[in-house]
Amino acid sequence: MDTTRVLLDHDSESYLPEGEERLNFCRHMLSNAALSMPAKIANGASTWSGCFGSSSYSLSSYLQAFSCGFVEDTYQLTIDDQPFNQGGISTALMMVNNGKFASGGMIMNPFAAINDGLIDITWIDDPAWQGTFSVSGVMSDARGRGGIQAYKGHSQYVRGRRIRIDIPKQDVTQEELEIADTPVENGEAAAAVTPEAPAKRNQVIMIDGEALSYENSIVWECFPGNLEILVSDSLFTANKTFSYRLTAEIERDRIYKQAVDSIWGQFDKDNSGALNKAESKMFLQTVLENIPPPNHFDESKFDDTFHAMDKNGNGLVERNEMVMFIKSIMRQREQAGQ
Questions:
Q1: Which residues, at least 6 apart from 134, have a Cβ–Cβ distance to it below 8 Å?
Q2: Residue 66 above 80 pLDDT?
Q3: Its pTM surpasses 0.70
């Protein structure tokens, strides 16, 4: 399955620190990442989850609302090394997904597809939906009611192989300048804060349910087919989870049928579902063209071959009869080690 590498405040892995500190700047995302309000709510909820369980999300939402935390954040968005919007994006909700589902089974992006080699990003861009109750309503839709619906028109949905956001440089407030000039207890002045070197304001991102901090930028890059999952089927067999077990023989039959189906229409000119003798001959000439002896097409033996394929003796070769014949040819080749 696809994985998505997430780099915080770095453009590549070349300059990342070693050891566990590396995990503060680089993760491989399986499901989703949340920014702005969803990240703030989830980060707050993690503090109280041990006591309040699932209610911790509601509690965190209320506290954000009471503290006027439902404000829009501004990001510079780049998709596959191309700026998406020169003016930046202001939103109270932004999600990055590998597939349409986020944590807890929420459907955040109705257009997303898993394992397609792309990353999906969505955000609220309608100003009428940026307030406290509107954002809460969008999150409620994601948790139930069939997920977020595109027809409501409150969000943007974009896809790309590599997605980057940058936090625009913020102006230093007069309050920050005054704080910088205030002496601390040991008599030393606080670190200087100037318009050229603004104070760092840590941002929060939730990656697969874990809160991480960053300052300036995030880069998501999709790695298609990067993770292979091997599962023992003993549990499925014991619980009879599936109606039948997919064996190598069943998979071979599927491939043979698919191969016949893919070119059947070229020879079944009247769409009758069966090939007459002349059509069967053209079919075998095409399919067996590159097969070495003794399974190659031999015109001198075609009459015998046709009768062998025509199991019910109606003078026609149906599709399933052709599949059985191709299967017998391939089995003979396997046994001969070809």
A1: 124, 128, 154
A2: no
A3: no
